[in-house]
Design brief:
9-stranded mixed β-sheet, binds calcium ion, 4 helices, about 325 residues, single chain, 7-stranded mixed β-sheet, mainly beta
Length: about 325
């Protein structure tokens, strides 16, 4: 029998009501804007990383010169998940990400992967049209480069256990990871640290290069459709992603090599727990079969993804 249901929409906080606490941090005292049940599908509206303050009529330079308040990386939330408790894993199955007809890329002085390595630049703003599934990136001389869209959620995380954390910072709770694999068709697993999990998300990108080198991607507002689920008593230490073809771990640290080491260490643990590998077998196996992705080197901690194809793995002993 077909069950009819309407997907519930979690609306983004109206611009005038955006608050630093609720929208620019993930924390245990933040006030939930919605409650969902495990198994429920929801649509979540999100602002772009500047709360849509940077627009064609108001480039970043003007925003900064006029002192227009910037809501850095606002998230929609927190969303309370019924029954979620510390020690559980929250499962977010990303179903769809809507894409508008335009996105923005900026250079913010003082922020970027090559800060100090390139000549200082004034604030820069570039809008790119998005049409027929492609971002039309226009060079300053007018030539156009079409880049196929590959939308994903740049910032998605849960409340840490005690202290609130800025939505600019990635970590064990998720947050500003800027991992292109957090995209439709994939599942994200996040460690729950507080009752209700307190999920927040925003900072959607139409497409991003590995490293997000200048500090921004094709930044867009969006509506994200996702199914929320819960695995009780499943302790994971860092975010994990599962695609139809790969399992992936996501770790953030500085220096960058620590993020790499953490991501591989987590992948070793996953192979031990779910596939019955002995530790040093997993270590050697990943040495011959793993892939890694530099997600971003612009945020307060850098983010690395370590992955391995499912086709190479033996049958899992558990759901993991
Ligand atoms: Ca980001
Ligand atoms: Ca961004």
């Amino acid at each position: 029998m077909e069950v009819e249901y309407t997907i519930r929409r979690v609306r983004k906080t109206p611009f005038e009501e955006l608050s630093f606490t609720n929208n620019c941090t993930l924390g245990p005292l933040n006030k939930p804007v919605a409650t969902v049940k495990p198994g429920e599908v929801i649509e979540v509206e999100t602002w772009d990383c500047f709360a849509n303050v940077v627009k064609p009529t108001q480039p970043l330079k003007e925003v900064l010169e006029r002192g227009v308040p910037l809501h850095d990386n606002p998230v929609t939330g927190p969303i309370h998940v019924e029954g979620a408790e510390a020690g559980d894993a929250l499962v977010i199955e990303i179903i769809d990400i809507s894409i508008p007809d335009m996105g923005v890329t900026t250079v913010v002085p003082g922020f970027g992967g090559l800060e100090g390595w390139l000549q200082a630049s004034p604030p820069l703003t570039k809008f790119s049209k998005i049409r027929d599934g492609k971002v039309v990136y226009t060079l300053n001389d007018g030539r156009e480069i079409e880049i196929p869209v590959k939308p994903f959620i740049g910032t998605i995380g849960l409340s840490p256990s005690s202290e609130a954390i800025s939505t600019i910072t990635p970590g064990k709770h998720g947050g500003n990871m800027d991992v292109p694999d957090i995209c439709p068709g994939n599942r994200l697993y996040l460690p729950v640290a507080v009752k209700g999990a307190l999920l927040g998300l925003g900072d959607v990108h139409a497409v991003q290069g590995d490293g997000e080198i200048c500090g921004t991607a094709i930044e867009i507002p969006s509506v994200v459709t996702m199914k929320i689920d819960l695995i009780k008593n499943k302790r994971i230490d860092w975010p994990r992603i599962e695609s139809p073809n790969e399992i992936m771990t996501v770790c953030s640290a500085r220096p960058l090599e620590d993020a790499v080491r953490l991501a591989f260490l987590e992948l070793i643990k996953w192979l031990e727990d779910a596939y019955g590998f002995e530790r040093y077998d997993a270590y050697m196996f990943l040495s011959v079969a793993a892939k890694a992705r530099l997600a971003q080197i612009v945020d307060p901690l850098f983010t690395v993804v370590a992955k391995v194809p499912k086709t190479l793995l033996p049958r899992a002993l558990t759901r993991w």
